[in-house]
Amino acid sequence: MKIYLDVSRLNRPFDDQNQSRIRVETTAVTLIFERVDAGLWQQVSSEMAVIEIDAISDTDRRNRVRMLLPESTSIMKLNKATFDRAEVLGRIGFRPADAVHVAAAERAKADVLLSCDDRLCRLAKRRKNDLQVQVANPVDWLKEMDDADA
């Protein structure tokens, strides 16, 4: 199982944990990383995530989030095909950075792109027939996975 985590997902463990939604999503990302670390799932990413992480102004947070990226061999280089696909996704409503993440996840043949961005998840659900990757909130997706294993 290939998992692509966008930067909203990678940031979640470092967000204010006083909100119950954030705590639940943080727990989900912890469980996902446990399965990645156990070799059950593979994490993939792209240079888009690196660009977004490098833009985080808080140096400590930037460094902590960067540590959640997979090894460099699992970070896709952005190329013309990725940007061309992102342009198509932009025309159907995806914001530019989200479109690049979706295009990169598709190119990496990820099984799922996990995001805490409600807008991205809702749009992807509406446009799922136009996508080559499932996009989901990690809590909802993890529940689906656990239900499938039961």
Walkthrough of the structure:
- With 150 residues, the chain is of the alpha/beta class.
- It has a single domain (2-149), classed as Rossmann fold.
- 56% of the residues lie in helices and 11% in strands.
- The protein has eight helices and five strands.
- It has helices spanning 7-11, 20-37, 47-54, 59-66, 80-91, 96-107, 118-126, 138-149; strands at residues 2-5, 42-46, 75-76, 112-114, 134-136.
- The protein has a five-stranded parallel β-sheet with strand order 3-2-1-4-5.
- Strand 4 (112-114), helix 7 (118-126) and strand 5 (134-136) form a beta-alpha-beta unit.
- Helix 5 crosses helix 6.
- The chain is globular, with a radius of gyration of 15 Å.
- The two termini are 17 Å apart.
* Main β-sheet, spatial strand arrangement: 3-2-1-4-5
Form type: globular
**What's the alpha carbon Rg, rounded to whole Å?**
15 Å
Tally the helices: 8
Low-confidence stretches: none
What's the count of strands? 5
Helix content: 55-70%
Number of domains: 1
Order of helices and strands: EHHEHHEHHEHEH
Q: What's the name of the CATH homologous superfamily?
A: 5'-nuclease
CATH topology: Rossmann fold
- CATH architecture descriptor text: 3-Layer(aba) Sandwich
Compute the separation of the termini in Å.
17 Å
| CATH class assignment | Alpha Beta
- Find the structural class using helix and strand composition: alpha/beta
Largest sheet geometry: 5 strands, parallel
> Approximately what portion of the residues adopt beta-strand conformation?
5-15%
